[in-house]
Design brief:
Layout lengths: L4 H7 L5 H10 L6 H6 L1
């Protein structure tokens, strides 16, 4: 199974990495900006 994070986020209306980072942090998953760029 291959998970496409960008497609999944876009389907939920999340277009910017900063939005995704904020949403993940709200759910307890804190990711640095450097790690986010790798996604």
């Amino acid at each position: 199974m291959r998970w496409n994070l960008r497609l999944t986020a876009a389907n939920k209306g999340i277009w910017k990495a900063s939005e995704l980072q904020r949403n993940l942090a709200e759910h307890g998953l804190v990711i640095s900006a450097g790690k986010m760029s790798g996604l």
